[in-house]
Amino acid sequence: MRHFRHGALVAAALALLAVQGCASVSREITGSISRSPAPSARTVAAMPASQLQGVVRSYGEAYQNNPKDKGTGLSYAAVLQMAGRNDQSLAVMQQVAIAHPKDRDVLAAYGKALAAAGDLPKALSTIQRAQTPDNPDWRLFSAEGAILDQMGKSDDARTLYRKALEIQPNDPTVLSNLGMSYVLTNDLPSAEKYLREALKQPGGDSRIRQNLALVVGLQGRFAEAQKIASAELSPDDAEANVAYLRKMLSQQNTWSKLRQSDTKRRG
Length: 267
Hints:
Blueprint: H1 13-26, E1 32-33, E2 36-37, H2 41-45, H3 49-65, H4 70-82, H5 86-99, H6 104-116, H7 120-130, H8 138-150, H9 154-167, H10 172-183, H11 188-200, H12 206-218, H13 222-229, H14 235-250, H15 254-266
Antiparallel strand pairs: 1-2
Helix pairs in contact: 1-6, 1-8, 1-10, 3-4, 4-5, 4-6, 5-6, 6-7, 7-8, 8-9, 8-10, 9-10, 10-11, 11-12, 12-13, 13-14
């Protein structure tokens, strides 16, 4: 998540969680082409449009040459999602799932693609199908939790995040997902606590830092939010993020709309 204005802020917190949550799976199962893994979301965020399109074309050509190859299909679908082409990513994963109907990694990536495309019930059932009770995967617990949060089932989601942390203690992506879950129910102090903990861990990345800055800003501490964001952004970008946050929060009924949404989900 490079800037707040690219998808963070009160009403967009659900979308932010969707990206952040499912990323915890995608970073682990993108597969590879000639031993070269798909670029990370952070790397893609820094690419100019022309370079990103070149990466998509490169993976697309490899996929066309061997559409049934698991690693190629997973990598191509992941890159398409990073480029915002969720419908095409889902179409690719549908073909990969047909070729590998019982593969756990494929089912997990298919569930991620379904969630990105907005089919949450099917995404949930696909992720659950990929899980094995006798040998549970913490990444799947985290991905399932992210989907449940989007469905308004935050209590169930947090149970799964904590199961993931029992298997993989202090994982930054799971801690971040847990933090963003509290954003969705307006418990900003708890959200800040988990996001700060996530950022302290090895592997705490740009998305976590920007999520933390968002949560601090939502509590009205704009100078602190700007300081957090500016640790890796240019001063102009960091200032623009906080200015946008301040503007959005000043709009009438911002908080009441969020609370109403929370009430409906719990009702």
